[in-house]
């Protein structure tokens, strides 16, 4: 890239230790960073990581040096080139999903094929019959057809049952007629639809013999395979500029009595019989919503790296950035001279940033739980057993909501912790935040999703409490955390915390009891208000959100603590257990996650009277103690995430700490600096031109 401004060469570094600050930080670590990285990735994935990163970083098509200067059209063109090159690489290197996931992560460029890979293909896999897979999945996997997932409409997104697009079965021709009767039935927001896709999975109300069977998925060809123009009776467009995600062509589509063969209704679970139009029921009514469950689980798995990325930038920058001389504890160099304090040494900065590191590690262990649960469900459902679906739906909904909300809040916290430079695109936060933000809305608005989790919790509570002998459920409590805490609460509703010193709060048993008691207390309270005081669902929505949040926080806490203590077959966990140094630092991080989470929601714990006010103060002191304990390891804990500079794309967070050099280098490349006409308010000619 061209530099438009020549930087003077006489400049001396103002901070003699500047470049070495991160090295000094790294020397403080109490553990082996490489060992922790191995725990996070596992041996195989770490090899994959390096192989894929090398390919991506060396390919000129993926060069991101201009990325912060691109407008919407350039971004979209860049994304198209990226997609095409990615497909070549997939073919050349025979990449599978595991490799592709690394490539997509490193590329960090939402593109028009994202929904093809992330939703169109998974829906065909999950809901297509063998014949349908042959017809649609095989060409989709070969990129001969490009698909999207068209569910949301202009008028309805969350309320899937309220979708207005219809698919009416026409027995005479053995076809469905796809139709958008109202403007509000226009499919909207659909990723890849605006300019790219030639096929769509359309969620439409299935109507046969005059009866509505609810939303079902249909494969519809939408553009001509040669001319790429919309097919007759189909209107398509891009929905326009957005808060972020502008490298993707989110689109809209309207259908005017479009006919498709009966074959195109995805029929693994429910079918329409030829001629009679008889409807064959699915084994579970919600199986047509299966793609949402999968993608929610994938989103949860992705949160840990999102938090890791934000923390990496903010922690490294905070170590390099110095501001003010601390009057009480001035920082002295070896030669006795006093220097300004690294902002990472300010306790307020630690209090804002270290919990983000802890959240990332917490999400790592819960992502493992989510993957295990999803795998177990897939195994069972392949033999017709869908009994895990309710659990899976409840935990994936609530965790998607809690963890993505946590992630966007933390990206913004980290950005602000970088002061003014955090507001520059060069910080690496701006595009990152904009592109990540829709995770709180898509695949279910984060507030709506908590209703689903709460429904499940209330139902379980009622089931257990209405039984004459609730202990009958005890055998399930090992596998089902909800039953476990409900039973504990019923046995001892007035349980009290036994901590008498700050360090008592490091006791994992005390921590678990606190979270179990709090969530069971909140659920019992909501059940009482709805069932006995006859409160409406709507009047309880704030409490509904609270119980989903409390439940999912408990899951995060429980998964972290279990990972530290329970013997496991899992390769990563075994490595963790075998290294006392790693176990020690991870225990501090776990304690910080748990106690900081408690402190933020202290009202719940006080209200349930598990904690007393003096204990709440002790807890806060323990949070401060943990910040001090973690401080020497802060930079190494983020280094272990191994987020490459090419992905961070950040002047502030780069591994070598050369923040200021990069800031001015990148600023010199701003195209505005290359414009021949400078803005001069006293220049009459210019003002006249501007007026014209
Ligand atoms: C090959 C792959 C390669 C690489 C992949 C790599 C990466 C991919 C990663 C990401 C993807 C990349 C890019 C795309 C990214 C994003 C694009 C975004 C797409 C979208 O947003 S698509 C649209 C998503 N829309 C939603 O999520 C809508 C939200 N609304 C709903 O889900 C439901 O309608 C809602 C809110 C749950 C309510 O539904 P409904 O009114 O029907 O239900 P009830 O409340 O009455 O409940 C009835 C009953 O059913 C149960 N239930 C509801 N939903 C489900 C479900 N999904 N599964 C199971 N069960 C469900 C509910 O609990 C009730 O049970 P009960 O009666 O209580 O027993
Ligand atoms: C970048 C992006 C990409 C997307 N890609 C796709 C795609 O590829 N395919 C696709 O089909 N969709 C896609 N979507 C759409 C997305 O899935 C929906 O926007 C999302 O599900 C939310 O639905 P909604 O817009 O109807 O929100 P609404 O339901 O209108 O929500 C608006 C507000 O009302 C509140 N609210 C609504 N109902 C209730 C209630 N019952 N109780 C309490 N509060 C309520 C919500 O909490 C929210 O605050 C995408 C969206 C975005 C932003």
Summarize the structure.
This protein has helices spanning 21-27, 33-41, 43-57, 72-93, 97-107, 114-127, 130-141, 290-320, 347-382, 389-417, 430-436, 446-466, 481-491, 508-532, 541-565, 571-577, 580-600, 602-607, 613-630, 634-639, 645-648, 659-667, 684-691; strands at residues 147-150, 166-170, 175-179, 187-190, 199-208, 211-221, 234-238, 251-255, 258-261, 271-272, 279-280, 331-332, 338-339. By secondary structure, it is an alpha+beta fold.
Helix-strand blueprint:
Blueprint (H helix, E strand, L loop, with lengths): L20 H7 L5 H9 L1 H15 L14 H22 L3 H11 L6 H14 L2 H12 L5 E4 L15 E5 L4 E5 L7 E4 L8 E10 L2 E11 L12 E5 L12 E5 L2 E4 L9 E2 L6 E2 L9 H31 L10 E2 L5 E2 L7 H36 L6 H29 L12 H7 L9 H21 L14 H11 L16 H25 L8 H25 L5 H7 L2 H21 L1 H6 L5 H18 L3 H6 L5 H4 L10 H9 L16 H8 L1
Parallel strand pairs: 1-5, 2-5
Antiparallel strand pairs: 2-3, 3-9, 4-8, 5-6, 7-8, 10-11, 12-13
Helix pairs in contact: 2-3, 2-16, 3-5, 6-7, 6-8, 8-9, 8-10, 9-10, 9-15, 9-17, 9-19, 10-12, 10-15, 12-13, 12-14, 12-15, 13-14, 14-15, 15-17, 17-19
Pfam families: ACOX, ACOX_C_alpha1, Acyl-CoA_ox_N
Keywords: ATP-binding, FAD, Fatty acid metabolism, Flavoprotein, Lipid metabolism, Nucleotide-binding, Oxidoreductase, Peroxisome
Subcellular location: Peroxisome
Description of the molecule:
- Mean pLDDT is 95; it is low at 687-692.
- The radius of gyration is 28 Å and the shape is globular.
- 51% of the residues lie in helices and 9% in strands.
- Strands 1, 2, 3, 5, 6 and 9 form a six-stranded mixed sheet that branches. It has a three-stranded antiparallel sheet with strand order 4-8-7, with no helix packed on it. Strands 10-11 form a two-stranded antiparallel sheet.
- The protein contains 23 helices and 13 strands.
- It has two domains: 145-282, Butyryl-CoA Dehydrogenase, subunit A, domain 2, CATH 2.40.110.10; 293-639, Butyryl-CoA Dehydrogenase, subunit A, domain 3 (Up-down Bundle).
- The protein is of the alpha+beta class and 692 residues long.
- β5 and β6 form a beta hairpin.
- It has helices at residues 21-27, 33-41, 43-57, 72-93, 97-107, 114-127, 130-141, 290-320, 347-382, 389-417, 430-436, 446-466, 481-491, 508-532, 541-565, 571-577, 580-600, 602-607, 613-630, 634-639, 645-648, 659-667, 684-691; strands at residues 147-150, 166-170, 175-179, 187-190, 199-208, 211-221, 234-238, 251-255, 258-261, 271-272, 279-280, 331-332, 338-339.
- It binds ligand LSKO443Y and flavin-adenine dinucleotide (FAD).
- Ligand LSKO443Y binds next to α5, α6, α8, α10 and α12.
- The site of flavin-adenine dinucleotide (FAD) has 21 residues, from β1, β4 and α12.
- One of its GO terms (molecular function) is fatty acid binding.
- It is found in: Peroxisome.
- It holds the Pfam family ACOX_C_alpha1.
- FAD binds at residues 152, 191.
- The active site is at residue 443.
